[in-house]
Amino acid sequence: MISDITIGQYFPGNSPIHKMDARVKIVLTFAVIITIFLCRNFASLALVTFSIFGFVALSKIKIKTVLKGIKPLIFIIAVTAFINLFYGTGEPVAEFWIFKITKNGIMNAVFLAVRIISLVVASSLLTYTTTPTALTYAIERLLKPLTYLKVDVHTFAMTMTIALRFIPTLVEEVEKITAAQKSRGADMESGNLIKRVKALVPVLIPLFVSSFRRANELAYAMECRCYRGGEGRTKMKQLKMKTGDYFSIFVVVLMIAGVILLNIFIGKI
Amino acid sequence: MSQIVCENLKYLYSVGTPFESVAIDDVNISIEKGEIVGVIGHTGSGKSTLIQHLNALLEPYSGKVFLNGKDVWENKSEIRSVRFAVGLCFQYPEYQIFEETVFKEISFGPKQMGLDEKEIEERVYESADFVGINKELMNKSPFDLSGGQKRRVAIASVIAMRPEVLVLDEPCAGLDPAGRERILSLIKSYQQKMGNTVILVSHSMEDVAKLAQKVIVMNKGRVAFQSSVSEVFSHARELKEMGLNVPQITEVFLKLKKRGIDCRTDIYTVEDAYNEIKRLKSLS
Asked: Cα B14 to the chain's mean position, in Å?
């Protein structure tokens, strides 16, 4: 079902990771992602992967949930790894027709698969442990320097908050509409591609209609509460950095240093 | 043989995530052909989950649903035939209306059944007539209708499939008293004319008392009571503990009894009340 997609979802919790400042989490996630790309050998990649899973363990999110998030990407990971099998250099291990698999190719394939999985896990951890509102507040705060360039950061952040806020609502609505149409005999599970696309029309039209209605109502509700843009607005929940945040920064910096050292002392795969 | 039987039905939401929760558990019900059955329960009591099992929208986590003695999930490729046999109409017509005209909207179901043009037209006019949608409205956009009209179009679109069992989820919610009365009398006459089974999910004890012969009370995902109207509403205290109530008129007579007036307390409709007051008057 559509609600089974876990990427971008938030799982409530009370772990040290949940309590971290969202700004720090965003910056560190970016730092980790960049570090993943800096890795040139298995030792450094292992260091990053272990650190990521260390953070996952700290967040107390079930490993089952995290792995479920990777599931939709299995196909992409498999194809990427498979193609890379044939692009290695050196002595072939197996050979047929114009294809040859080398030891280097196998290593590359495994390396890539681990790299993609680490990327997905690192970025999902951010959304798993941060509420969408905290996330957008943090983005608003991080992008604040852009206001000097006359970019309306607040409106951008508000748009994003609203969009994120309504994803679960829309998902729920899609399920309700699908149930109603299925009750009238709509067939969404069989037939060829064209038939299936056509079967979506009875779901999409009510969805659009209700989205527009909702947007209208939301605009009225915001006006009724005197919303007038970002200027002078204060926040109830101020973002504040705490010991846990400084500690995480320290750990990530240590990890980056480790990766650089490992890159220098152990060669490329 | 009962028309619909649920055996040890259990359903979980969001299986395998931290949000996993039991929606219904250990539900055993049986519904006879031609009955009007009321399903009542507090919000979140599992009413909607239960009725979505009846037309095979939801697959039970464990337990079975039988329609005319046949397990509905026995043959998955024939699941749509179950949905044609058990017509489910949801609370909000906004979630299903999508066609350009009322006619097309009502014909969606019959079209999915693969009927021919003539048969479809016949059924559309028949069901539109039944719910009181005028012929002039047939070529209008369903989005331009009033709330009550939309609701009736939605019901017509389900009736047009001529289901053996009609399941209505809160058909009167959010309607004005006139619209409400209209839908209720429509349900009653549908059942009388067709002899079909009707399952009515409602928050209103009055509506259920007025229409149903049998009541299923859901509480926290389980069946609390499953019995005749008078039997169920005699449990006034238990119902209140579940956040439900007895019909207002019943409450009046319960209080009269408490004040020492020797009246009957199995009064569920205004008509019952009228007769009882007449009886009491003749006694004094």
From this structure: 26
